[in-house]
Every structure is written in C-alpha cells, then in structure tokens.
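Hi, here's the filled form for the chain we discussed.

Project: internal
Contact: R.S.
Residues: 266
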Amino acid sequence: MELLRVVKHRSLVSELVYVLLNVGLAVTILLVVWAVESPLPAFILILLSKWRIFAVRPRYWLAHVQANLVDLIVSISLVVLLYSAGSAGGEQGVMLQVAIAVLYVIWLLALKPRSKRSFVVAQAGVALFVGTMALFSAAYEWPSSVVVVAMWLLGYAAARHVLSAYSETSATFLSLAWGFVIAQIGWISYHWAIAYSLPLIEGIRLPQASIIVIALSFAAERVYASYAKHGSVKAADILLPVLLSVSVIAILVLFFNAEHLSVSSV
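And the returned structure, exactly as it came back:
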C-alpha cells in the first residue's frame, strides 16, 4: 500500500509539473510576442521546447521530426497568429492574443497528448486549418513557390499523422500524394487569394483556402476510413461527408467568390 501511495504521489506531481511547464510555455511565448517585434525569438523558443525530438541518435532525427510535425506546425502557426492579432492594436488586440494563448494551452494539455484515432484525426485537422491560416496571413508578399512548398508540407504532415493511426503500409506514398493535392490548392489560392473578415475580430482573417482544404481533407479521411474498415469504400459511409464537403466548397466558390469580386469591382 505504501508503494502504491508513493507511485500515485509521484504521478500527481509529474502531472502537475507537466501542466505548469506547458502553461508556462504559452505564457512565455505571449510575453515574448508583446516584448519583441520580430517573431524570431518566439520561433526559437518553440524549437527549444521541442528539444526531446533531438535527444536521440542522429539517425532517428528525421523520424522524430516527422512524428512531431503536426505539433510544430500548430505551435509555429499560433505564433504567427499572435503577431497578426497584435496588428489590431488596443485592448481588442491584447484580448485576442490572450485568447490564442489559451487555445494553445488547450492544444498542449487536452488535444495533443491524446492517441485515440478520432483525436489523432482532429490533431491533423487543427494543424492543417491553423497552418493554412497562418501561412496566408503572412505569405502575401512571398514567392508563389514558397507558398506551394509550405502547403505541400502541411498536406503531407496532416496525411501522415492521420495514416499513423491506421496500419497503412503505403503511408509515405499516400502522404506525398495528398501533399501535392494540397499544394495545388495552395497555388490556386495564392493567385486567387480571398479571405473573410471574422465578426468582432480584427487583425486576423479567415482564408478561403483554409476552409477548402479542411472540407476536402474531411471527405478524403472519411473515404479512407471506410476503405480501411471494410476493404472497400461503402457509399453509406461517405455519402453525407462528401456531400457536405462538396456543398461547402461549392457555396464558397460560387457565391462568396462572386460577392467578393463584386465588392472589389466597386
């Protein structure tokens, strides 16, 4: 009994330390964003916090980087969004930055540690959505090639993360292929960039590309999940997800694009 009490006490202490370290990381990043105009120190802090990726022999570094790509994407993207939120200025900008920091804490403590398949899929979705938002909020003056490569990396990382929850022997090939699909969307979105204002929020806009890649990825994940479960794609499994995704994309392209273009022409 005494041994069980000691183990339980150590477990509680470890959990408390884990929570404090992650909350401290989010708070420190927020303070760095407030104190320094350049995002570079915050990026360095993020990389330093991931030191365990390289706490192995060099031959395992690539595998560890790939396994942690989703977390790196979310962390770096939230730093970019923190700086974008600061451009709003005033109390609203500060409150938005605090809200983003709180969301980062939720990511670190509630979503990132989960290993259940549904949570793994959600992690990939968050990385793809937030990563696309951050990319298009910062890349309006970048060369198109950089944006396309970045979008490919987002698609590759998200697909690999999802496929890691399945016993997929062709995970690398499928991840590379999905990366190229997302890269194509990135190329089109770069030349046809549309972003929507968010209610009561200044400094951050929602790129159309973020919604499209999430809708398309959701449909693709449902198709793959059906195939992985049954050995073939069942129409009953994918009909509603595919219809939902196609409807969302069609509404954005046919109606919201037309509205945006008409406003721009005026």
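Let me know if anything looks off before we file it.
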